[in-house]
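Ticket opened by: R.M.
Priority: normal
Category: complex prediction / small molecule

The reporter submitted a protein together with FE2/S2 (inorganic) cluster and asked that the result be attached to this ticket for the collaborator who will pick it up next week. Submitted input follows.
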Amino acid sequence: MPTTVSMTVNGKKVSGSVEPRTLLVQFIRETLGLTGTHVGCDTSQCGTCVVHVDGKSVKSCTMLAVQAEGSDVLTIEGLAKDGKLHPMQEAFREHHGLQCGFCTPGMVMSAVDLVKNNKNPSEHEIRDWLEGNLCRCTGYHNIVKAIAAGAKAMA
Amino acid sequence: MPEGTGIGASVRRREDGRFLTGSGTYTDDINRPGQTHAIMVRSPHAHAKIKKIDRAKTLKMPGVLAVYTGEDMKVGGLPCGWLVKNQDGSPMVEPPHPALAQDFVRHVGDIVAVVIAETKQQARDGADALGVDYGVLPAVVDTRAAVKPGAPQVWEQAKGNICYDWGLGDKAAVDAAFAKAHKVAKIDLVNNRLIPNAMEPRAAIGDFDRATGEHTLYTTSQNPHVIRLLMGAFVLSIPEAKLRVVAPDVGGGFGSKIYHYAEEAIVTWAAAQLKKPVKWTAERSESFMSDAHGRDHATHAELALDKDGKFLALKVETLANMGAYLSTFSTCVPTYLYATLLAGVYTTPAIFANVKAVFTNTVPVDAYRGAGRPEATFLLERVVDVAAREMKMDPAEIRRKNFIQPSQFPYQTPVALQYDTGNYGATLDMAMKMADYKGFAARKDASAKKGKLRGIGMACYIEACGIAPSAVVGSLGARAGLYECANVRVHPTGSVSVFTGSHAHGQGHETTFAQVVADKLGIPIEQVDIVHGDTGKIPFGMGTYGSRSIAVGGAALVKALDKIVAKGKKIAAHLMEASEKDVEFKDGKFTVAGTDKSKAFGEVALTAYVPHNYPITELEPGLEEQAFYDPLNFTYPSGCYIAEVEVDKETGSIEIARFVASDDFGKIINPMIVEGQVHGGVAQGLGQALLENCVYDKDGQLLTGSYNDYCMPRADDLPSFEVQHTDKPTPCTHNPLGVKGCGEAGAIGAPAAFMNAVCNALGVAHLDMPATSEKVWRAANAHMARAAE
Ligand code: FES
Ligand code: FES
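Result attached by the on-call engineer:
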């Protein structure tokens, strides 16, 4: 039985009809057409789908759309403000923290959440935090550098 | 490092804006009006006869539009692009490769049927309900087991499961050298099977335009024109003019998105049947059982040495697993991309390699980052370390003693290739300095005090890139040319569109190719647009793999730019009333030597399109040029990687204390991007050596079919890398940019460097990859036991 869910996504109130089994990531990609959030696995291990729900990073493939009822969701599309990249996005660009770009939205959303809780993360802490985000292109080297620089820029 | 946006500058990537804001367009982000969804029904058995497929129930389910099986889709098979011959001159066994299985399935994941419905969920429900009756047959999985007498046969026509039995080199010379050897170093090794795992799963959308009869395929491909050629000409019989293939943003490839896959043909064919777009996106578990796998060699090798440690001869026997079918490039990987590299960076005068390719009931194996060259480098650099151990020589010393010297180029190896240039001592010196090789003994002592084992290992790699001279590969069995095409369109107001046959899926061509244009035409980079990935826009192309984009695609671009400048000179000569031969072009200006006359590039472009004052009887209006570039030789990037590890004897865990890379890529367009390519390659190489392994059980079930079981390198498994380009680069001598390519080097050099370090730490001659804690623990404790004896 389809039901209606409503939530705030990137500052806008949205609602749509979903199946009880519809995942939040499907709602974001298919119903809202926000395709910046990606799907890279079916076992909740790649992190390409990370968004913020009520201020916390969440793998949007691990959550049902109906569970996000009334929540405040931020996706990669909502991170830049007034055409200006968020400092974390800017740091990824400056430090070549992305290649194919597929893991990037999840990486950036994860990184922003990390820095919210840890203003000045060490390399070790950054690598630890990224445990749930896979990247096959960069070898993580420049992602780690970008996040450290992004954290400084966010301070 | 040069400032600005020209060749040599670390220009920040122009493609990043869209990827960082979630506005990239990957295949699964595309939706066509009226689109339907396909789910592939895959075999759960490694080998079986399809007895019956009952589609009645599925067809009655809500939203289901069609079920197609091999009985419906009677089209051509997926072709293999390279014919390899046996030692006796006869051709390899080339079994059929139907898109939808015909009567038999030959690996877990083989496609039995496709269910198409209005929504993906309906298609999935329909697929779950499809009744397929299998008669299960015995399966063979393991590479070595495949050639044992009595092994189950994958193909009736391939006796003993042999696809080909191929040889390269002078066997008699090798035997003679072994007869007088002072010492022989021997090794038996497995190059572990890998699953590529680009983060974007494969996807494909077939579309059919009833009005024009045109088919369009959107697909996750590294080479859309190759897909158009293979699928159009061999599988579906659609002429090029009626088939457009679009490869939009692609989320990583590493080889796995080169090949023409069954799903592409299925959605294109089904869309024409249903007159509706048909979309398929792999779930990750499907990727594991349907993306072409990589590596999977079992090898025995022997290196003959004289009393000074000079290499006299090398002989190699390799079994290479092809899987159940021959994927597009599969057959050339363990032959022409492997055995031809067995000289490495050394003067070994005699080499003989025998490679037997075998069929098994597993997913097809094809090129994966490095393709053949990592296998060659791993084998060679391991056996050299074994030799050093037996000769009691330092690994650096034995290598240095055998290097091809800078004065010896061009250097003809005994295994077909002719290296144009290189300086192997320079990268070795640099890497040793970066790694503080001299200080290792003290660090080892410090580790020992903590109860830990410390090891250091190096690998000096060479690769053949810039694939490939068409005539050469044609004579070796390639069924295609491997040139590249570029079209440069200068617009009336002076902005430029480049249409390139190279395809970027992480490499940053929109930046590096634009740097080449900005540099050569002297115009701002903002005025340059790089277009790729659409056969409807780009004249032709062979795509991106084998580190060929800048070496072949970039060279084609330079050729086209040269033609633009040549025509521009004619126009400028007319405008400045000068002789064409006196016109010079530099920094975006046409000038007449010895005068102050000058015309900007933009003025000349405008004149070409507004030809009021124009040499119209001699010259056509417009300013657009095209070039094909077919390389004269391969390019030969090389370098030295050094790994240092610390092993915990109690747990068998390995910490990578340091990883340094010194590469020689010749000329470099964008150092930032080149370093990023090395980082990524090294991470994949370390992934292979430390963590990754594709495992089937004896019945052919894929045990490592998800991220729960297939161990991908994560951020906390890896260190930061120290990567430096050599201070004595040797630019490629035969392409106009002097470039060599850098995409695969990391994956080629890293496994051997790392495993040499692990073996050094453990004091063992050899350990197979991946160096899991269990294997390392066993080796570490055997070592302690030996020491105690
Ligand atoms: S899609 Fe992989 S973790 Fe969500
Ligand atoms: S940039 Fe390609 S997966 Fe991370």
